[in-house]
Design brief:
The chain is about 30% helix and about 15% strand. The strands form 6 sheets. A 7-stranded mixed β-sheet has the order 6-5-17-16-15-7-8, with helices on both faces. Strands 22, 23, 24, 25, 26, 27 and 28 form a 7-stranded mixed β-sheet that branches. The chain is of the alpha/beta class. Bound molecules: ligand MGD (2 copies) and molybdenum atom. Keywords: 4Fe-4S, Iron, Iron-sulfur, Metal-binding.
Amino acid sequence: MDATPTRVQNPWGPRTPYAPGTPWPPRTDLHLAPGIAEDQVDRWVPAASVLHSNGDAMDIAVRQGRIVGVRGRAGDRVNRGRLGPKDLYGWQANASPDRLTRPLIRDDGTLRPCDWDTAMARITDRSRALLEERGPGAFGFYTSGQLLLEEYYTLAVLARAGIGTHHLDGNTRLCTATAAEALKESFGCDGQPGSYEDFDHADTIALFGHNMAATQTVLWSRVLDRLAGTAPPRLLCVDPRVTPVARRAEVHLAPRPGTNVALLNALLHEVIRRDRVDRDWIDAHTVGYEELAAAVEPYTPRRSAGICDVPAAGIEHAGELLADAERLLSTVLQGVYQSHQATAAAVQVNNLHLIRGMLGRPGCGLLQMNGQPSAENTRECGADGDLPGFRNWQNDTHVEELARLWNVPPDRIPHFGPPTHALQIFRYAEQGSIRLLWISGTNPAVSLPELARIRSVLAQERLFTVVQDLFLTETAQLADVVLPAAAWGEKTGVLTNADRTVHLVEKAVEPPGEARSDLDIFLDYAARMDFRDQDGGPLVPWHDPRSAFAAWQKCSAGRPCDYTGITYERLREGGIQWPCTPDRPDGTPRLYGDGISFAHPDVCETYGKDLVTGAGVDVTEYRSLNPDGKAVLKAAEYLPPHEDVTPEHPLQLITGRTVYHFHTRTKTGRVPELNDAAPDVWAELSPEEAARQGLSDGDLIEVRTPRGAVRARLRTVAMRDGTVFLPFHYGYWDTPGGHRPEGDGAGRAANEATVTDWDPVSKQPLFKTCAARVVLVARRDSLAQRTSTPAGSRT
Ligand SMILES: Nc1nc2c(c(=O)[nH]1)N[C@H]1C(S)=C(S)[C@@H](COP(=O)(O)OP(=O)(O)OC[C@H]3O[C@@H](n4cnc5c(=O)[nH]c(N)nc54)[C@H](O)[C@@H]3O)O[C@H]1N2
Ligand SMILES: Nc1nc2c(c(=O)[nH]1)N[C@H]1C(S)=C(S)[C@@H](COP(=O)(O)OP(=O)(O)OC[C@H]3O[C@@H](n4cnc5c(=O)[nH]c(N)nc54)[C@H](O)[C@@H]3O)O[C@H]1N2
Ligand SMILES: [Mo]
């Protein structure tokens, strides 16, 4: 079936209805460059999507050494052939004429092209001088959720045991830190319990702060196909906006932003009140039930209705759905993760599954979702704050395992305190203790909160910044050295999606100019720095993706994320879910089918934290609370958002996504089909709220907070009153006139306005709640008509 531009109009494609318990029918999506027919394609190269976390498997079409299209892989377990609009069109960005093709170094204030030797010498000279003068704590590495597993593992080893710094984190801190933390709090260890196949069996599906229709279009197609088939599932949606998910839900609750804990406590209250808990399961597999039951007791639907500003009857109806479910599937994403009680709320969804005994069986899926394509790998490999292989920094045996593996003394691996989270890394750079910041595969000058501050941190003279990217992004423009990276389709390695499915992405074409893979760049740095193990051998002895993968397999052996049964050859046949070992070669669809396996004090990745303060629990306390390694039911009191509305800032600002763009649009903004669908920033208010503010649809407005302002056209849409929504995709690189949003601060990036603040447990920033006001800049009638009608408002 040809994917004509109608996939911009209909992101989910045609329906293939199916019944519960039957396999999801395949549907092969294809898009080729105009004028190219399928039989003109020279080669099809296996790959998977990198523009979301779903891991949709595809083949890249290559003709005469160039990418000319993509086709979904019908045999793959994740997508059965389907692709979303970003994947169908997004590959065109690879060939964008403004790709970086040579390294750049800053001389006399200007970035100028140079060769690799010059650029790398500039970095290693500075590195050696800093190591000598200030030691490893002067180094910070800020990486991505979009590179490949082999690249993260290499970075983790060179940063932790080569430089010896623990200032290493990923943009996964902004993305899935809460997913990881919530799983660690409840199950002792990261690792997604559920499987996408649970969508084929579930009788009830609950989405918490997850606009799946826009952000995981293929998974939403799976839901739509179930809804179109016999015995469709019942749907619950919790989102302040009337998203496409909300429109299909039996119950839609639109809470005040930042009140998820109050709502979830009431839902737990209702399940317990209806006596729909699974006592045997609770006794066998959990600790903490009595405390949880007592904690949610006061959260009656009426009380929480007052806090969340939703009807009490709606909470009761949602409670009935959850209590009656026999096969409950829940997903959680940024509406929960990017708020002040992120982990506390996400853990309550775990609790829902634990008290109902709904884990490890078909249809009983719990998905603490990922967002980025390889966020899972960042976490597994320890390129975020945690140690590789989900090892516990407080457990000396775990640190010794790593030390043996890398052949270094244990004290070479920093583990004296909690890992440095991304916003703290920027704080250290601001204060001057971090002097070299190496940014790979992320664009913090658009994606971090409070951009005026981030720009000033990055622009400091005393901070040496390396940026490794495909394009001269807003961040790269502030760098001292810019390294041109090879993109997806130009390098080989694996990436693991949100349900633990590992896919192989192979090199289809050569990178442009002198661009190199991130793996080659990291290996080159390790070699030039001459990092050694304790016997004088090279610390990083691998040299290509395959040998890096083999090194990672050894690191993963015996840990929950065990890759020892996976090979590149096997991955060419299709995705495999970890853990996968030689005696379990088909992988593991669901965790915890036979009880909780990774929470034992000797195995667990963490001893846990207090859900309100984030204070760590120590090993003695954990051993006495949970000696047998069961799941921990942790309760949390609701606390109001940190920055609440005032007469001067009467609205709550939330930010998020549209279906057509990926993050800071470095790829999707360079693709005509996608860019034309949503070319510029807009702001959303409910029609009632707009009227109250004296505004109408199409007016040019400014959304202001104490940090800054965003100028945008107003769209009136169905959503909560009192709330304003901005998509966060738009930086300034293609602003008409190319202006940078300094001056009056009237920029396009939502993060001009967001606040520097984070969840105390996961340290994930609060992109979804701050106080704002809106002011009129110009009436619609006085402005030129828009040239195209953005379609993004639907999703
Ligand atoms: N098209 C597209 N797809 C993507 C991406 C992209 O940029 N574009 N990015 C990928 C990545 S990295 C990620 S992390 C995911 C994110 O995927 P999602 O989490 O689905 O996306 P968001 O739009 O950030 O937020 C989801 C919803 O949270 C709601 N929300 C806001 N505040 C609250 C609240 O207090 N409570 C509740 N319950 N809901 C609230 C918002 O209204 C919004 O609809 O998407 C992935 N997929
Ligand atoms: N206000 C607000 N802010 C948010 C969010 C929100 O909902 N609201 N969401 C947050 C979330 S969940 C996320 S994940 C972040 C995303 O924020 P970012 O990570 O900053 O967003 P991207 O635009 O994906 O940046 C990735 C960069 O890597 C480059 N790149 C792509 N592939 C490669 C590669 O193979 N190698 C290298 N070296 N570079 C590559 C791209 O060109 C791009 O510049 O934003 C966060 N910020
Ligand atoms: Mo994300």
